[in-house]
Amino acid sequence: MKEVLDKAKELIKSYFDSRPKEFVPGKSRIPLNTPSFGHEEIIEALECMLTTMTTMGKKVRQFEEMFAHYIDVRNAIMVNSGSSANLVALSILSNPVVKNHIEKGDEIITPAVTWSTTIFPIIDIGCIPVLVDVDVETYTIDVDAVERAITPKTKAIVPVHLLGNPCDMKRVMEIAEDHDLFVVEDACEAHGAMVDRKKVGSFGDLATFSFFFSHHISTMEGGMVVTDEDKFSELAKVLRAHGWIRELKDKEEIARKYQRIDKRFLFANIGFNIRPTEIQGAFGIHQIKKLEQFISIRVENAKYWSERLMKYSDYLLIPECKKNTRHVWFGYPLTVKPASPFTREELVNFLESKGIETRPIMAGNMAEQPVMKLFKYRKGNLKNSRLIMRNSFFFGNHHGIREKEREYIADCIEKFMKTKMGS
After folding, report:
1. Which residues have CB under 8 Å from 47's CB, separation 6+?
2. Catalytic (active site) residue 215
3. Cα separation of 379 and 195, whole Å?
4. Could you tell me the residue ranges of all domains in the chain?
5. Long-range own/partner contacts, residues 8-16 (CB < 8 A, 24 or more apart)
6. Superfamily assignment of 291-421 in CATH?
7. pLDDT value, residue 106
8. Which of 85, 99, 110, 135 has its CA 20 to 30 A from that of 382?
9. What confidence score (pLDDT) does residue 423 get?
């Protein structure tokens, strides 16, 4: 069996080493994302599958420890997706075992421009989403709008580090402290982003990350809940797996209280079944080692594009990094200014015709999505969110985009701009 496995490893490595990598301008397509994994992840996963022990186990625990160390928090609990991570985080804060927990009918403030499953878990726990506007330059939550939106019913803030750009967490945490609010950071697109050299995900009571295929690092599907609060961590372990006690530090103490119940099937709380697999853990322990390298490539690409495109700032809103932050660039966003002599659709269609994939800014302004008609919610003035819904988009920025690709993208945008400007 060892000979067979060694041969399989050799073949897998050879396959990845031989994959075509050359970019041909005008012929090769530049996708929004490209696989971030290679032979190391596949081999680790293969070894795991050959043991037939593929459900959550030691590889998941190893990845959790590595990720907690990276973010600099005490606890990391892996789940099957970033969306599930958001559901777990809010289910923790609304659980009756938590002191001053969130109750049904309470309000939770979050930005209008986000992904759908930032908002849906708020509804899932019986609360009212309060959608506030974003800063049009950063695409992140407008902290002034947060302050204006607070009422006696407000119990939490869910800031979103959209597209890898960190929110103003200093002010968010000050507001939360002043009003005794929980904070859940949605960092699903912001692995490694920092404010004052402190990584996002380490500010709030809880934070969430996604390892979907398109994210900075990938376990194919997968997510993580992180927290410094041990009680929240223990509750997260219960919630992700049926509500049973199997992973709890005090499981033996609980079992002694209920000796007539088989401790393997002793349920201490409600729960879901959103566990990750060992295969996802196998991917994670190799992916986390590559993250800083991937971020460096994204930062360099974004810097190049911003320098090349700044001369068009009368027509395009060019993204910039805020002082004392590290933006990790999930994608590279552009907003067509309303007075420009062309539309977003014209620019997007041109780029797509040149093989450059684009997409809207996440779900856009969620207040305009038809799903919101089904539920009660509250919203503020969403002027910037409406603009982003109509005038903004992003194209890919990832480890697969190097010098030739990023130059080609900039050249295409310049060609479009010269055509529209008549020069």
Report:
1. 5, 282
2. yes
3. 28
4. 42-283, 291-421
5. 8/43, 8/46, 9/39, 9/43, 9/46, 12/39, 12/42, 12/43, 12/46, 13/39, 13/43, 15/39, 16/42
6. Aspartate Aminotransferase, domain 1 (3.90.1150.10)
7. 98
8. 85
9. 55
Q: What is the pLDDT of residues 36-70, one digit of tens each?
A: 999 999 999 999 998 898 999 999 999 999 999 99
Whole-angstrom Cα distance, residue 59 to residue 44? 10
Q: What is the pLDDT of residue 230?
A: 98
List 161, 215, 327, 399, catalytic entry? 215
Phi, psi of 186, deg, nearest 5: -90, 100
Q: What's the pLDDT at 180?
A: 98
Rg (C-alpha) for the chain, rounded Å, is: 23
pLDDT, tens digit (0-9, with 9 covering 90-100), for 99-129? 999 999 999 999 999 999 999 999 999 999 9
Query: CATH code for 42-283?
Result: 3.40.640.10
State the sign of the Cα–Cα–Cα–Cα dihedral 290, 293, 296, 300: negative
Q: Exposure of 368 by Cβ count < 10 A (0-12 exposed, 13-18 middle, 19+ buried)?
A: middle
Residues of the chain with pLDDT under 70: 423
Please tell me the distance from the alpha carbon of residue 71 to that of residue 74, in angstroms, as a whole number.
9
The secondary structure of 316-383 as a DSSP string is EE---PPTTEE---SEEEEEE-TTSSS-HHHHHHHHHHTTB-EE-STT-BGGGSGGGGGS--EE---H
Q: Which tokens in the block code for residue 323?
A: 């002082």
